[in-house]
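Reading a protein record of the kind used here takes only a little practice. The record below shows the convention in full:
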Amino acid sequence: MGGHPLRDLVLSSEPPVTTAAEGLLGRRERMLLAALAAVLAVVLFALRGGLQPAAPLEQLARQSLDLPVALADGRPTLVEFYADWCEACRAMAPAMAAMERQHHDQIDVVLLNVDNPRWQPEIDRYDVNGIPQLELFDANGTAIGRSLGARSAPELEALSTALISQAPLPQLAGVGSLSSLDPAGALAAAASMAGPRSHG
């Protein structure tokens, strides 16, 4: 019994029929691949720091005021020149963050990254040649002192307390007051106590 050639051709060109089990297996594979892709995306996000809070140094830098605003708002200002790669800056960051939180309404903390060309005029103006370097300003925005090298939490507290209360700066190695008559002499004395490239 022979078949009709055209009908046989049409029947042979139809797509193969898949069973319910084969269709379900394809759907499971697609769902598994989608789940695996989602897990990989979450892992990559976590590895890039997306699930972790920013480190204290990055948090401080992001929330700090612009320097002209800080110097004009009637509060004393502590400016830190830093770099992301500076271990001393990173080690000092939690103490800086704690000090900023404690005295948030009494003192401004400004961070300027020495690797950002935007701050080159300030780097030149304040003779930054090592980090961390702190520039200390009174409530009128007048530069009154400088601190070279890393500072501990008690030292940062002493500096901020002196700024807030308008008291003389504490006697710490690497800290010098600026005189309106001879700022270079005060800076030379501070620099002789601790090398600016010592990184604390």
In short: The radius of gyration is 31 Å. The chain has a mean pLDDT of 80. The first helix runs from residue 5 to 13. The CA atoms of residues 158 and 170 lie 7 Å apart.
